[in-house]
Write a structure and sequence with these properties.
Layout (H helix, E strand, L loop, with lengths): L4 E5 L3 H12 L4 E5 L5 H16 L5 E4 L10 E4 L11 H22 L4 E4 L4 H12 L6 E3 L2 H16 L6 E2 L2 E3 L5 E3 L5 E2 L2 E2 H6 L5 H12 L1 H9 L6 H15 L4 E10 L5 E12 L2 E5 L6 H24 L5
Helix pairs in contact: 1-2, 1-9, 3-4, 3-10, 5-7
The structure holds adenosine-5-diphosphoribose (APR).
């Protein structure tokens, strides 16, 4: 059986880490694409030279032309610029909308059958724009946010409860970061809901509240420490979990920014919800009933995604 092909659009911090993980896990061959001259080629060569030591077989190549992604099974998009000092939200939106438009056209031309995972921020808007620009089916274009947010939540809970991260399962909905809607009642340790663990005296509600707050601000905490750049190890791992579920038809239930067409009362928007990812992409949106507090947070999150999409339409008539 031929190896799968995974195209990485953007060979920066996350792109390079994605390529490394794909090699280590032998998920397939990799094409690293970037507009920065020499960067994807240099990273591809460096990663390839790690393969004899690590013992993986994968062809990793750098590219500066979209034709190199032809026939990719999965495309993961990190291309874009981060917000710089002095740059307004609209400036960032304008630049990254332009990037995502070009990327969407490239994928449409060379890899129209791929499963596409968007990581570029502001995520919920960029994945929406990428789907529009590529014209691909909505079940084949998703955004990575919830797997990362829930991993942060799981890690903090495991630390607090002094149990393995593997046994902590966390449930999140809504947009990325500050807009995330954690569902404490659906988060568990080995099937035991968090409220029960509070009642059992394993932790306190105040500590859970502090963990929820820290999780929401998880990206900012890392930016504050790094000072130049944002998180990349965990974001890359999160996208790989999504890609792996698609490539191996695992049908994992993962929180992703998925296209909603009436679910949760939302239409023509990408919002973070749990979905089943299998060989057909997003195979099912898991629609739970929200309690009043969750609904309020979810609605707020949807409203902020709508505001950014309105701004995007105003900035670029191609999206109107
Ligand atoms: N086409 C291809 N690549 C591009 C384009 C473009 N039009 N514009 C920029 N790039 C490349 C840059 O050259 C850079 O190598 O995208 C890469 C982005 O890499 P980093 O700046 O290192 O950013 P990274 O940490 O990888 O994060 C990427 O993910 O989490 C989000 O907010 C983050 O939007 C950012 C993205």
């Amino acid at each position: 059986m031929a190896r799968k092909k995974i195209a990485l659009i953007g060979a920066g911090h996350i792109g390079g880490t994605l390529a490394h993980l794909i090699g280590l896990k032998e998920l397939g061959d990799v094409v690293l694409f970037d507009i920065a001259s020499g960067v994807p080629q240099g990273k591809a060569l460096d990663l390839s030279q790690s393969s004899p030591i690590e013992g993986f077989d994968a062809r990793i190549e750098g590219a500066s032309d979209y034709s190199a992604i032809a026939g990719a099974d999965v495309v993961i998009v990190t291309a874009g610029v981060p917000r710089q000092p002095g740059m307004s939200r609209d400036d960032l939106l304008t630049i990254n909308l332009g990037v995502v438009s070009k990327v969407g056209a490239g994928i449409k031309a060379y890899a129209p059958d791929a499963f596409v995972i968007c990581i570029t921020n502001p995520l919920d808007v960029m994945v929406w724009a990428l789907q529009k620009a590529s014209g691909m089916p909505t079940n084949k274009v998703v955004g990575m946010a919830g797997v990362l947010d829930s991993a942060r939540f799981r890690f903090f809970l495991a630390e607090e409860l002094n149990v393995s991260v593997e046994d902590v399962s966390a449930f999140v909905l809504g947009g990325h970061g500050d807009d995330m809607v954690p569902s404490v009642r659906y988060s568990t340790v080995a099937g035991i809901p968090l409220p029960d663990l509070v009642a059992m005296g394993w932790t306190t509600q105040a500590k859970i509240d502090a963990i929820v707050d820290r999780t929401r601000k998880g990206g900012g905490e890392i930016v504050g420490l790094l000072k130049t750049g944002s998180a990349y190890y965990a974001p890359a791992s999160a996208a790989i979990a999504m890609a792996e579920s698609y490539l191996k038809d695992k049908r994992r239930v993962l929180p992703c920014a998925a296209y909603l067409d009436g679910q949760y009362g939302v239409s023509d928007l990408y919002v973070g919800v749990p979905v089943v990812i299998g060989a057909n992409g997003v195979e099912r949106v898991v629609e739970i009933s929200l309690d009043a507090a969750e609904r309020q947070m979810f609605d707020k999150s949807v409203a902020s995604v709508k505001t950014l999409i309105g701004a995007s339409k105003a900035l670029d008539p191609a999206f109107a």
